[in-house]
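note to self: the first set is below, dont mix up w the second
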Amino acid sequence: MIGFADEVYIDVASGNGGNGCVSFRREKYVPKGGPDGGDGGTGGSVIFEVRQNLKTLSHLKTKRSYKAENGETGKGKQRHGRNGADVVIPVPPGTLIKDPDTGKVLRDLTDMDEQWVIYKGGKGGKGNMHYATSRRQVPRYAQPGEPGVAGRLHVELHIIADIGFVGLPNAGKSSLLSVLTNAHPKIAAYAFTTRTPNLGVMRYNYRDIILADIPGIIEGASHGAGLGDKFLKHIARTAGLVIMLDLTDENIIHTYEIVLNELEHYAYEMLQKPRIILGTKLDLPGTKDVLEQFRSEFSDEIVIGVSSFSSEGLEEVKASFYNMVQSHARSGNNGVSGYTEPEEST
């Protein structure tokens, strides 16, 4: 069974148009009737459709080839061939359709129930009834249908969320997500418990706020180390970031600098997003002192202490998340931020 999948290559093809028909009217008292060949049907198109209930591209892993139906050949008595059925490919919101060779984004599918026709089916050919003239009354020619279009596509998912959690493994991201939302991510006392992005919905002040927890990043993640580089793309659309730091970490300032450095190397725009720093595990001895020292070191940042175990600081966290999303909306970004391909690191 295939679990979470956020990118896949698929082959798609629209249907060929049906050929026009060569036919002549033949009735008992009309032995030499004129041409009555009908037109061929139009081939089916390839259509991507955004489905709210989908959260992954795993269904495209099990079927990687999609072909629309060909149009039917025209028939005598001026009967039109049946049009070919479209092939509809369902995808979750936040799906990018890319050219597999150049990496160019062909379409960014974010709107609910959005449909996009990438390849139209071939037109049906005209039957011979269209080619009768005063000089050629018995045309024995019909137009062939146009061929469909085939191609290979790179389909990539960038999860749509309001706020993204970022931090090293075991920083407490999954624990916080579980107490703030209805999500139930795997939680354990070892690194890389989270191996796929987790989403949860936090309800606050009559508003739903979508939170995304991605696998922990490590130093060098932006260059491919660990799991973080693979999933950093899932927080590219967020209104803001929450950088989570373990208050029991003896090198907490260095850890913070690692996270910022990896975000910058992945895409400089990440550092331009509003951010909140959360010091986790506030219930453990000595962590309050560490929190105050960190606040004094980074007085220009929003720094909040929180404990998923004792619930200390949770209300302040919820209010801060809400304010971040509201500020994003007031700035004119009521929808999802557009996708920009990150520049390659040099």
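second set (the one i keep forgetting abt)
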Amino acid sequence: MARLPEAALWLFDSVGLTAFLAATALAAGPDFVGGLQKSGLSLVAAGILVCAIPHVVTILVGRFLFRMHPGILLGVCCGAGTSAPALAAVQEVAKSKIPTLGYGVTYAVGNVLLALWGSLIVALMSGR
């Protein structure tokens, strides 16, 4: 069985996905600037709140109500946010693979909800 060097795994895991996201963001850049000019900073503030509030609530409820291990809890947040680069960053800082324990199920649920709610919002916005 062949073994990949650790550096090659890191390159495929982190840089590959990050490069894909960067290319996608560059393609969406002109639309973002137009939306920012039209809607102003309230659009940016709303985006920050919509992204941050669920994670903050998850961390508070998981830590104080369910008494979850912080590493697993951060893995849950990475999975719910469907963010593999965030999981890699948490694992690197923790120097542990423990966060992956909370990642798998929440990643699957997050992707299903993202697809369902994304389609629903598009349908509602188009008036169907």
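remember for set 2: The two ends are 53 Å apart (CA to CA).
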